[in-house]
Structures are given as structure tokens and as C-alpha cells.
Amino acid sequence: MSRRTLPQATAAYDFASTSQLINELEIRDGQAFKVGERMELNGQDDTQLIIISPDGTKFKLQVSNAGTLSTTEV
């Protein structure tokens, strides 16, 4: 998933533009991981957990049906 930019502010107050901004913020807030929340990633969709090593190398975390964890460099 690529990052999207928020809509630019208009020079004068515009209800439609403000509503669009609020809607976008609510969507993004709902996608954010919150402290104390439990995150479940489903192996049946395209959701991936990427972890980054201290040298900047990225790894995808995977789990087998037996619960064995492994990583693949991405």
C-alpha cells in the first residue's frame, strides 16, 4: 500500500473540502495501530508485517500452520 497525501487546504473555508479532510483523517485513524490494541493479520489477504533491522534491511514476518515464525527479506 502506498502512502497518500492529504488534500491541500483551500484559500477560503469550504464545507465540502473540510468534510473530505475529516473523512480522510477518520479513515486513516481507523487504519492506525493503537497502544493496547490487538492486531490480527490474516494469511488469506495481502496484509504483511514488515520489520526493519538496524541496518535498514526489510523482512516480511511469516508464520506456518505449526506456529513456526520465519522471515523473508523484501
User: What gross morphology would you assign?
Assistant: elongated
Which structural class matches the secondary elements? alpha+beta
The total tally of domains equals 1
Helix content percent band: 10-25%
The sequence of SSEs as H and E is HEEE
Distinctive features:
74 residues; alpha+beta; 20% strand
Model description:
- The chain has one helix at 15-31, and strands at residues 49-52, 58-63, 69-73.
- It is of the alpha+beta class.
- The protein has one domain (15-73).
- A hairpin with a 5-residue loop joins strand 1 and strand 2.
- The longest helix is centred in the N-terminal third of the chain and has 17 residues, at 15-31.
- It is elongated.
SSE layout and pairing:
Blueprint: H1 15-31, E1 49-52, E2 58-63, E3 69-73
Antiparallel strand pairs: 1-2, 2-3
Question: Could you provide a short overview of the structure?
Answer:
The protein has one helix at 15-31; strands at 49-52, 58-63, 69-73.
